[in-house]
Amino acid sequence: METLPAAYTALVERLKELAVLRSCASLLSWDEQTHLPPHGAEHRANQLSLLAGLCHDRATDPAIGDLLAQLDDVQALGGHAAPVAANVREARRNYERSTRLPRRLVEELSRVCTLSQQAWVEARHESNFAKFQPWLTQMIDLKREEADALGSSTGVRYDALLDDYEPGATVAQIQGAFSPLRETLVELVSAIRSSGVQPDISILERHYPTDRQKSLSLDAARMIGFDFQAGRLDIAAHPFCSSIGPGDCRMTTRYNEYHFSGSLFGTLHESGHGIYEQGLSTADFGLGTGEACSLGIHESQSRMWENLVGRSLAFWEFFYPQTQSAFPDALGNVSLQQFHQVINDVRPSWIRVEADEVTYNLHIMLRFEIEQALISGALSVADVPGAWNDAFSRYFGMTPPNDALGCLQDVHWGAGLIGYFPTYSLGNMYASQFFEKANADLGDLNEQFRRGEFHPLREWLKTNIHSHGKRYHAPQLVEVVTGQPLSSEPLLRHLRGKFGQLYRL
């Protein structure tokens, strides 16, 4: 297509201005979780609520609807797979969703999200769900109202919320993907527990000074390709990655002097998100082709760098000497094989972000179950701790001793991210399928990792995934990249192969 329609040029101008305004809100949200004084929460909530309202006004401006009406000829835009057509398609989807939501609801959701996150930090610190309960009650009421306003072709409230993170996905589809995965994981966990192999996890509970953990985390992120000239790493109560805009991607982690793996693997995870954001087209900022495909695809990038790369033996054959040098007192007498075994220890644990690859998806399934019950009304907020503990006992065979290790461990509900959790397990499936294809295309990735060469994989991901933005929806992208529809088999092959070898199954 040689000449872009005037309506498209005008639409792009409006979308880019909206993206800049939203980036201001993103910066304030990042600051809220990293540097905001506790007494500033109320004012920050008002700031973000006002910005949310202003963004909503721009997003629902009838002028955007008029421009979109002039751009309904897909063939004139280059066909369905053309970048211009994808940008119009995504703009139309966003416009239609936004116009279903009243400004009052958008502003109130923003305000409550800010205050509830602050309440969550305090409640988690005190392990006291009662302090968070009033805020979660408000949040669930607001998210139900949002779901009803958005509507869903299936008539399932939760589907309307899930669609925000994984467009087109439904509860029925997710359950269909999770069911065979759950059965195999339970069998694999049982086989591992019966193997008699018990890594010495006390190795990870030795003293690891925070300043050295920070230095090592920065080195690891830089090594796999996160650009610190276009990003930074800070501390927060819960690790996250926030893309403020082109050239400004901000990650957080947290440190525990007696739990080494939390910060290192948390940083690798967030670096995967950050590398994806840094790999998107800066010229297309504010457009579909400059945005991540879906949260499931986003999580595939973080889970790939954290697990398929970061927990591989090849990665540590290169990085362990530096790590051992950083912590001579803790790791001086620990062999590479011992270290690799212990960072891949498989056993039920309380905290999702610190869970091993095998049990991790069970954490997600538990949250998926509880979220659906909350949104449908089958579960009251007051009963969340009990429901969590009962479900945890069913999934893991043990009961959390307190709320901090139970239902208060994740920030997502306080942040209003209802419907997000399933994307983690989808991300694990996407990651394994992409990794198999990358390995076939690039040769032996593990041999490259042993030499400290991570750029071939990073560039492959940028070319095949990042550069497309939302040109394709997630199911299409998987087929375009791998030639096959999404399947749990690559993930199960990875888990059976890796842990079968580690636990001599």
TrEMBL record:
Q: Kindly give the Gene3D superfamilies that the UniProt entry links to this protein.
A: 1.10.1370.30
Provide the top EC class.
hydrolase
Required co-factor(s) are: Zn(2+)
The reply on keyword Coiled coil is: no
- Paste the cofactor note: Binds 1 zinc ion per subunit.
Give the EC number(s) under which this enzyme is classified: 3.4.17.19
- What InterPro entries does the record point to? Peptidase_M32_Taq (IPR001333)
Identify the CDD domains for this entry: M32_Taq
The catalytic site is made up of: 270
Q: Which amino acid positions bind Zn(2+), per UniProt?
A: 269, 273, 299
Give GO terms for biological process: proteolysis
Q: Recorded GO terms, molecular function? A: metal ion binding; metallocarboxypeptidase activity
The answer to whether keyword Metal-binding applies is yes
Keywords on this record?
Carboxypeptidase, Hydrolase, Metal-binding, Metalloprotease, Protease, Zinc
Q: Which reaction does it catalyse?
A: Release of a C-terminal amino acid with broad specificity, except for -Pro
Sum up the protein's function in the record's words: Broad specificity carboxypetidase that releases amino acids sequentially from the C-terminus, including neutral, aromatic, polar and basic residues.
The family line of this record is: Belongs to the peptidase M32 family.
**Protein's name in the database:** Metal-dependent carboxypeptidase
Q: Name the species this protein comes from.
A: Planctomicrobium piriforme
